[in-house]
Amino acid sequence: MQQRIGRVTTGDGAELAYASIGEGRTLLYVSGWLSHLELSWQLPEERAFYEGLAEGCRLVRYDRAGCGISAPSDHAPSLAFELEQLDAVAALLAPEPFDLVGVSMGALVAAAWAAAHPDRVRRLVLYGGWVSGAELAPADVRDHVLGLIESHWGLGSDVLTDIFAPDAGAAARAQFGRYQRASSTAATARALLALSYELDIGDVIDKVRTPTLVVHREQDRAAPVAQAVALAAGIPGAGLVRLPGRSHLPYAGDTHAVVAPIRRFLGLRATRSGGRLLTPRQIEVAALVSEGLSNREIATRLGIDERSAEGHIERILLRLDARSRAQIATWYAAHRDELG
């Protein structure tokens, strides 16, 4: 899949960038705290997650104001401004109802928008969300994290990476730390995280009339699972899927476990990869590449012809956005423990 980038302007003049991939019924995705449409597409794990969601539909994402490739804005972060931005992107979509997915802070924005626009949303998925930001962590912990971001964005993002993606490998976690720093300034990052802690949609969720699925990892280190239980209990008829894992980011850890129930709920067919980065056979080939084997040696080891081995390596290079066998070997070494 290749993503297509476009621009849209809110009613108050904020310019947002959005990206779409795939074809079919629209699935609009509201990201969490920070995003970067271009850099996220270059991270193999995150790209695999989006491709897993987009198979058989059109996935639309956007960078909120001040993040990624969207323009800075003078607006102070608020739920009202978040809803205004979602309004602008939703206005681009066909008049038919679309599916809406909100992740982390985006879950609260998506739920509030769905409550206000019951005729526009066909199905609603909330991953890693909460009802009250004040319940995410004690006040002193929240103040400490915000202070780290304000005084040392580099250190602050490393701490947050440990909170958001403890199940990711060392290479992926280091990549995410750099990704955070490239996604916004320290001031914007702090202001948006402060908004996450301030948001409370307890007076809104009982107005959601859209069929809703809440998905959450049991040991999520950024958002307690109790908040997911409260979120599902507050939305009439909502279902709740509790998954193993500690990572808050949906594309860290077992991505397939996140993608599969979402696709089932949205009525989409199961994918062959389910959002996995590489197939089991491709992982085997990557392991042999890391041993320094040639295409002929890989073919002999696996009992396939040399042309098939070459084709597997070409597809691995594409999936990893890599340019050499050495990069495949580096990726495999960094993820060996996760791959089992």
UniProtKB/TrEMBL annotation:
InterPro entries cross-referenced by the UniProt entry: AB_hydrolase, AB_hydrolase_1, AB_hydrolase_fold, Sig_transdc_resp-reg_C-effctor, Tscrpt_reg_LuxR_C, WH-like_DNA-bd_sf
Domain HTH luxR-type: 271-336
Recorded superkingdom: Bacteria
Pfam families: Abhydrolase_1, GerE
Gene Ontology molecular function: any one: hydrolase activity
Keywords carried by this UniProt record: Hydrolase
Stored SMART domains: HTH_LUXR
PROSITE patterns: HTH_LUXR_2
PANTHER family: BIFUNCTIONAL LIPASE_ADENYLATE CYCLASE LIPJ (PTHR43433:SF8), HYDROLASE, ALPHA/BETA FOLD FAMILY PROTEIN (PTHR43433)
Protein name, per record: Alpha/beta fold hydrolase
Organism whose genome encodes this protein: Microbacterium alkaliflavum
